[in-house]
Amino acid sequence: MYQGFIFDLDGTVYLGERLLPGAERVIRRLREGGKKVVFLSNKPLYTREDYAAKLTRLGVPTTPEEVVNSTFVLIRYLGKVAPGAKVFVMGELPFVAEMVRAGFRLTENPEEIEIVVAAFDRTFDYRKYNIAFQAIKRGARFIATNPDRTCPVEGGELPDCAGIIAALEAVTLRKVEVVVGKPSPITVAVALEVMGLQAADCLLVGDRIETDIRMALEAGMKAALVLSGVTDRKTLEASTLRPDHVFDGIADLEGLL
Ligand SMILES: [Mg+2]
Fold first, then answer.
1. At the top level of CATH, which class does the domain 4-42+182-256 belong to?
2. What is the pLDDT of residues 13-39, one digit of tens each?
3. Do 4-42+182-256 and 81-179 have matching folds?
4. 75-131 pLDDT, tens per residue?
């Protein structure tokens, strides 16, 4: 039996502002059984506190320590490989504030910038683009929060971090060095660190076969695909990836308890 459960959020635990059927009960029963629970999101727009507050509001009491999002993963990663580095962030203000809180020195001077971080940025503009371009041209490292092409929103989708990465790659002719969000093993490592568990003791539950399920299987972790989000049976059958469990939704996890 698994000791830890890693849940993707959108399409797995909730859809937009709606908790999915059975989510509250399954997560409560896991916790009552002494299991560790962590929630994963690739979105660099909100803080861990924001996700914890949303889950709590929807009926799943959660602390910020139980949330692993791509900005947290990036901060943990940079804290290890480049502590105290001078950074320029192509991102939104809450992420910039998080970087400052984590002790990074932010600068807009291309001559000082050691690392350019590209994120999903709805405040992207030419000024920031040029700062990042000049810095990378001078040899700054180039890393990113998440590889997602689009971000699903109510009634459609928005261009996500892949567009920001591509914009910089196109003009600098440099490839992004590291993208820390799902399906990167860096995200798995941070989630396991937070839980204090090994991959073999955990189950990852997610709705995206190419990110959630791929990441788990490549990390040697068991994976459960839920069909309540973006993946349907057709997509599953067409994929070479084989999750250990396939459920209609999170409620079916009760069968594992
Ligand atoms: Mg999802």
1. alpha beta
2. 999 899 999 999 999 999 999 999 999
3. yes
4. 999 999 999 899 999 999 999 999 999 999 999 999 999 999 999 999 999 999 999
Cα dihedral 130/134/135/141 (nearest 10)? 90
Name the average pLDDT for the chain: 96
Domain boundaries of the chain, sorted by first residue:
4-42+182-256, 81-179
CA of 85 to the centre of ligand 1 (A): 32
Ligand 1 centre to CA of 198 (Å) is 23
Classified by CATH at the fold level, domain 81-179 comes out as: Rossmann fold (3.40.50)
CA of 42 relative to ligand 1 center, distance in Å: 9
Provide the phi-psi class of 155: left if phi over 0, else alpha when psi is between -120 and 50, else beta.
Answer: left
Distance 205 CA to ligand 1 centre (A): 9
